[in-house]
Amino acid sequence: MNYVEWLRVRNLLRVVAIILTILVVLAVVLRVSVSRYMSPEAWVAHLALDPGTKVTRTTLPDGTKRIVFDDPDDSTHVVVDDHGYAGKHIVVTEPTSRAQKEHSDVSVGSVRVFESRNGATTTTVIDTNGAVPMIYYMALADIVALIVATILAAPLAREVDGHLEIALTKPCSRVRYALGVILADAAGIIAASVITVIAFYFCQLLFESARLDFSGINANAIAMGLILPLAWYALLCAATTLLSRSYGAVLGFAWPVAILTGALTLIHADNVVALFVHDVAWVISRFDPLSYVEFASPNATGTYNYTEANFGLRLSIEVLFFVVYGAIAIWRWQRVEA
Amino acid sequence: MSIKISNLRKSYGKIVAVDDFSLEIPGASVFGLLGPNGAGKTTTFKCMLDLARSTSGEILYDGKRLEPATFERVAYVPERSVLYDWMTVEEHVEMSRRAYAKFDPARAFELLAAFNIDRKRRARALSKGMRTAVMVAIAFARNAEILILDEPTSGLDPVNQRHVLSLMINEAAKGNSVIFSSHQIGQVERAAEHIAVMDRGRLVLQGTVDELKADRKIVEGIFPDVSFTLDGIARDLRVARTDRTERIVRVLVTGGAEEIASDLTGAGAMAVRVLDLNLEDIFLYAVSPATATTDIVAKESSS
Amino acid sequence: MPAVLTVDPRSGVPIYLQIVEQIKRSIALGVLQGGEQLPTVKQLAVDLTVNPNTVARAYRDLEREAVIETAPGRGSFVRADSVADSPRVAAEIGRDALDVALREAKSVGLTRTAVRELFETVLERWFADDKRVE
Questions:
Q1: What does CATH list as the number for C15-83?
Q2: Given CB atoms, is C111 within the 8 Å cutoff of chain B?
Q3: What is the ipTM of this complex?
Q4: Chain B residues contacting C, CB < 8 Å?
Q5: Are the C-beta atoms of A150 and A289 separated by less than 8 Å?
Q6: Which SS3 state, helix, strand or coil, does residue C77 take?
Q7: Count of structural domains within chain A
């Protein structure tokens, strides 16, 4: 019954797959060309080592290659454990005066940096094989999924644009037809997220092993990442069925308007005009699924925590957006005339 | 499957497109709906298919209102192309195959070949006539009990127009109904058994083609001079209109032509004859006021 | 068969009547033989591109006038005795033609004598070489 929409989705996913394949190929090329820079020496190059440093290389019983840099003049000791494909583990012991001025723990992708001070000595541990937080994958997947959602959006407005005589003379109810369309597009959006994650996971595998963790905060990230583009899609569907004559313009202006209202909510309300603009923008942004996404916020220890107390609330709001905006689109479809 | 339209009224704001229109379309027949441009034919079709909400009135299919399942038995060809530009002809056939249980894809491809359509072409690469042909081929492969066709031959070359007519006649011979609108009155004359004429949203004429042609005649009388009176004749209920030019009188009658002819002779006409009308004549007389066709020429020569 | 029948939908004469007349004419001329099978209603309708009920009505009229007979399941056939009736049918056709011609002549105001003179002239034109004796 909704073959036309499934065809649209399939055609678009083909394009997305081609683009992702090109990216993967580029990653392979990159991997091949930088392979000679992936040696341990490069990792510790930033440490200004004096010529008097003693370098010891050993191989541990489990095959790990260990390189020890010892500089007694500066009281600096670096141990680099190279587990090969499984990542590297680096321990830097240096006087506190020499350590990086910012005291912070960093997590970027699968790289973790922990610092601990012990009086005059600072120990920094760098670990490159942490579990990859799903949030990074979902962020990438969402960029693709949001684009796919915007392209697929307005399916009902497109039918109104000269195809109602076909769409409305099928042996199924109008509601059933509209639901089928939304289902097909939702499946396409989720599929786009999935193939993006797979593509980037593969890219990561080219460089080193990646552990994926699907529990706890990662599960939350996945849930939010999957529902966000669907809520955005549903918003565009509703907007374009309300303004079906100019659905192209609605789709084109959706991004800029969302970004603009989001930006305007950041204005400091220090005078009447600014307050007014801020408040109007704030009200408008309440209807925008993108404003309820907060993937991460820093907590006291400097790491990122994206399971804030009201995460559940925000997730529910996104689901609500999908349902309500979807219902508006279906309601308008129910009433449309050829 | 029969259709009964009762007091259909459809207005778009202040404009009344269809006004108190009632019609009964019997099953297993070919029904022609005629009318000038803007008469309301397309709007009537849309109301019949729930593509437009009627302002008032009722349309019943075999006594029941239209519901989604009815569309398994009703096929529609709209007057303009509604194909998806980006899909191929084959994909359109596949779409119909998945949507309708009784659709016959082999028959559709047969018909497409007869119309000389390349099944792998995208709809945007087809000319207007070819798009009509695709919609027609798919509709006739539907095995539907009723086919509603809005100007199904527009844009087609004469050979393909004949194909479409033959298809319509074939459906009628199979016991299905075909309701079509066309500006080609000659085609309607051949294929249709019943016709209805609409003008400005209203029904102005209906009947079977045979009856209309048998009953409606022009009785022409030539009088020796201009001093004659036609009052008696003009009041006859069977006289639809009277055109008088000096000594010549032409009376359009809806029956009883021979009697009116003798009435004219009785009124003093020296030469009276009864002229047959073809469907185009009947149609033109039904939709145009007495002087309509001469008006256009008069305006041209006086300006 | 289709080559023998042509219908003009634009003429004022109903199509079914045209079909009836032409079949009768074919029989009178010997183009259709006694016992010969006619096309089915559906086949003739498609061949002539006319409504099947129009053809059905023509066949019904022909059957009522005992020109053809229909055997259920087998088809419609020219009656053997209607061929023998050819002279009568021919006479009917001739009279219908003269009817129309004389009505026209009268409507333009010709007198009986004038028409008779004209008739002889036209007769001579068409039948000059016809030496048949009844």
A1: 1.10.10.10
A2: no
A3: 0.86
A4: 29-30, 162, 165-166, 169-170, 172-173, 186, 189-193, 209-210, 213-214, 217, 222, 270-273, 275-280
A5: no
A6: strand
A7: 2
